[in-house]
Amino acid sequence: MAEFKQAPAGAAMGEKLLTWVDNRFPASKLYKEHLSEYYAPKNFNWFYIFGSLALVVLVIQIVTGIFLVMHYKPDAALAFASVEYIMRDVPWGWLIRYMHSTGASAFFIVVYMHMFRGLIYGSYRNPRELVWIFGCAIFLCLMAEAFMGYLLPWGQMSYWGAQVIVNLFAAVPFVGEDLALLIRGDYVVGDATLNRFFSFHVIAVPLVLLGLVVAHIIALHEVGSNNPDGIEIKAKKDSQGRPLDGIPFHPFYTVHDIYALSLFLMVFTAIIFFAPEMGGYFLEYNNFIPANPLQTPAHIAPVWYFTPYYSMLRATNDSMVNVLAGLVAIGAVLAVLKGRFSAKGKIALLLVALVGVALLKTFDAKFWGVVVMGGAVVIMFFLPWLDHSPVKSIRYRPDWHKYVYALFVVFFAILGYLGIKPPSEIGTLIAQVGTLFYFGFFLLMPWWSRLGTPKPVPDRVTFNAH
């Protein structure tokens, strides 16, 4: 048993209370390790506010969700009316509902920005691979949470969006129909589906999400934060073991984040009070109509944060599958001709390519669309082992790398826009090009990330006081 500390004689009541708590729970130790004595790089820029903003939005979603659950009825006959009751009759119910719906979009905005910052500054590189993996798992969990919560208002777009997405699982060979039935709980999207999604949205997924957030923060504080220069600040320390280029997270970055939070809340509240639907992007107008299984909307599209992946799904048709088969074959031939493989390695590579082409031609394009949509998220988990650049940060990579990253962002935005719009021939063609670029960005990264001559990386972080 550890020896208890004693408060000094004549200590104030607060100090005695803190000593009593510390003897039973490491409150002061946690405060020092994760705030006052956690040294973060002194050259953080504004891209580093989005992690803390994501944590704030998570709290907003949990708190508002608790109040919504108090009045919501997870029943297909009552769900839509209960949401209307919250909006019209519950005191301040409209505010809680709009905070929750706006918070969902805000969550994805800050998470997308947080991931983009990690992408350009190499925050996924050694020794932060596990931090990145936990982050990608959070993103995947967040998508599941948003999809299940989207069904709960039981409006037209909620109902038919769930119908389309759940039916995609039926495209999985051999087990697809049983899998779709398991998810729905019935042969059509109905009361059983609503109850399942409600249970997962309110209890199961949030528990996993909170666990992953804690793991993400613990892993980050174990290895230390990255910075815009991609330099490890722990490499150079003073006589007391403190990083020369580090400053305590508290009070310096807590004040920095509070200022950023105040700006974020101004925008957040402005949207809630003046444009909660955001022109139909945050809350679709069809979702203000009760779900009707007998009337299909003219155009079914998911919420904006899912549309890049939905666009990839729609782009994967028979012609796209033929292109993919051709690319697999060409890639295998080039690897055999140009690669440094043994004779057995070349034969194995050709056999794998042959099997891949055969599979592409065997299964339906709808199935491969599901694979492409899921693969677009899963491939990000492998990013730490795809990037072979000798430097981490975009600051010191060849200038043309910036254009590659810019094109990646542009194509991702275009895919998101096309996913909102009804399908068209030219739109499908552009989406196919965007999908190929998206996957090419990752799959060809081991090759293109090594090209060019990087700029010299300084020994210490670059920082100008302001």
List strands and helices in order, with pairings.
Blueprint: H1 13-22, H2 27-36, E1 39-41, H3 50-69, H4 79-88, H5 93-121, H6 129-151, H7 156-168, H8 176-184, H9 191-223, E2 246-248, H10 249-274, H11 307-315, H12 318-338, H13 343-362, H14 365-378, H15 383-386, H16 399-420, H17 425-443, H18 445-448
Helix pairs in contact: 3-5, 4-5, 5-6, 5-10, 6-7, 6-9, 11-14, 11-16, 11-17, 12-13, 16-17
Properties at a glance:
466 residues; two-stranded antiparallel sheet
What this model shows, in words?
- The protein has 18 helices and two strands.
- It starts with 12 loop residues before the first helix and ends in an 18-residue tail after the last helix.
- The radius of gyration is 25 Å and the shape is globular.
- By secondary structure, it is mainly α.
Order of helices and strands: HHEHHHHHHHEHHHHHHHHH
Broad shape: globular
Task: Report the radius of gyration as a whole number of Å.
Answer: 25 Å
How far the N terminus sits from the C terminus, by CA atoms, comes to 49 Å
* Average residue pLDDT: 92
What helical percentage do the residues reach?
55-70%
Number of beta strands: 2
Q: Report low-confidence residues grouped into runs of 5 or more.
A: none
Q: What composes the largest sheet?
A: 2 strands, antiparallel
Continuous helix count? 18
Main sheet: strand order: 1-2
**% residues in beta strands:** under 5%
Structural class: mainly alpha
